[in-house]
Structure formats: C-alpha cells, structure tokens
Amino acid sequence: MPYAIRVHETGGPEAMRWEEVAMPTAGPGEAVVRHTAVGLNFIDVYFRTGLYKAPEMPFTPGGEAAGVVEEIGEGVEGLKPGDRVAYVSPVGSYAEYRTIKADRLVKVPDGISDETAAAMMLKGMTAQYLLRRTFRVEAGQTILFHAAAGGVGLIASQWAASLGATVIGTVGSAEKAELARANGCHHTINYREEDFAARVKEITGGEGVDVVYDSVGKDAFPASLDCLKPMGMWVLFGQSSGPVPPVDLAILAQKGALFCTRPTLFVYVAKQEDLQATAADLFDTVASGKVTIPINQRHPLKDVAQAHRDLEGRKTTGTTILIP
Fold first, then answer.
1. Mind telling me which CDD domains this protein's record contains (predicted)?
2. How would residue 316 be classed by pLDDT, with cut points 50, 70 and 90?
3. Which of 57, 124, 133, 262 sits between 20 and 30 A of 268, alpha carbons compared?
4. Domain spanning 3-121+266-323: CATH superfamily
C-alpha cells in the first residue's frame, strides 16, 4: 500500500503524519500519477496551519509535483500511461500516488528533469503570471522583489533581468544577498539591517520603482508603498510574515495614485488553455537557459515536518524538493 502525508487537525509541523493510504484509481476524466518529486511552498504552511481552509479533513497537503502517469480514466485524451507530467494543485501532492483531473496535468518536455519540473511548477508559473500578466515587465523598468532569495524570488529575478529590467531584491542575510545577486538581482537590500524603502529611493535617485512584488505581507507594509513611483503597482501575492491589516484605500491616493492587486496563481491558470500557455512559457524560458531552477534542499517526503520548520524559520534558499 502507498503512503501519504495526512493532516487530521491543523497546527504545527507535527500535525503532518506519514500514513498508509488506499491505492488511488482513476475515474472518468482523471489520471493516477506516481510522484517522483514533490515541491515545497509556503502555501503548504498556510493550509497546514488553517490560514487557508482545506477542502476536507483529514487532507494531504502539497501544491506541486512531477511524476509518471500510471492510469487514465474514461474520456481522457492526450495522455497515456508512462507520460512524464507535472502539475499545480491547492493540496494533495505530499503522497506517493494521487488521482488528479487529467486536464490539470502538463507534459514535461525532454531536457527538463522531474526534480526541476516539481521545483518550478508553482513557483515558476507564479513568476510567469506576475511578470508577464499581472504587471508586464519591460526593458528599462525597475522592480522591487521581496524575498529575492526565496523560491519564487530567484526565478523571477532571473526572468525580469532577462527582460531588461533593473531588479532590486530584499533579503534577510549577507549569504542570501550573494545568492540573489548571482540570480539576477542588480541591487540587494538586507531588510534586517537597512530601511528598505529609504534604500530603494537612494538606488533609484528618488524616483521609486515601477512595481513591488510582495509575498511578505505584514512586515513589509506600508513601506512597500513608499518604494513606488506615482501610479506604480503593489502586487501582494503572499503573506509569509502574516496578513496585511485592513487598509484604508485612501492611502493609495496619498502615496501617489497607486495601484494594488492581490492575485493568485490558481485564478490565472483556471482555464486549461491558460494553464498550458503559462507552463509552456515557463518551460521554454528554462530550456533557453535564461532561468535556472536552484534546488538547494532535499528531504525524504516522510520527513516533511523538518522541511516545514526550515521554511518557516527562513533557513531555506531557492527551492526545496521532497522525494517520495
């Protein structure tokens, strides 16, 4: 019998249990995938703690994985057993096998390993929609990316630099600053030692940046708004330090007629054609060498609790892979 991580009650990392589960089967429109690599993301913490509500209890956490199709159900076209695939999903990937809707799978092209695919599906497609759809980054612009040494940050910084943007990244240590500079950041700011808003204004000659990409939330607000040019955009796509408190939107007018948005990947890829196009752009960009996917930590899937402790303790850089 296969194993999976199960959460019966939300809480700390210890809430995740390695349990024997029934072998999944494929119903109409579904496929069974044998996972070969599973990605780790901060959204997994949100579901584990209950900040985001799981669809049912108990549940299996995990939002991205790669593997091999083992079985397809009635009506599935374009996939067959043996195909290498990857996906993003709110929950369910912390398992040796799973059933998933077949139209949520994308084929992994030759030249991209299962580990790389698992490491970049959620983080890489997040970078894609942020840079190419939410605020379309163009040559000559200047951007600020919080948590630049994190999984999304390292991918997005490389990608934005390849588009001709000047990339400023915030980090939490000298080591992370070095890593961010090696992955596309032209300037780094250690938020533990510097006032990042003041430093951004200094770097930009008082102008500010065109866009702030913020996955930090509470600890970076409202200073993120002070980094923007008039009519700049604040893109809040996460809250690793906690949720931003209720905001009087008049602050946007006071600070320069600013724009703000709170996007999420699952809305951007809800349509199958958008999912396939987003993944194809990501795969092409990685295959071209413009972006590399740094896998800096690996853990056995059964030891995911330690991986969560490291992630929450900001001890990780780049991406973490869980091996079933």
1. QOR2
2. confident
3. 57
4. Medium-chain alcohol dehydrogenases, catalytic domain (3.90.180.10)
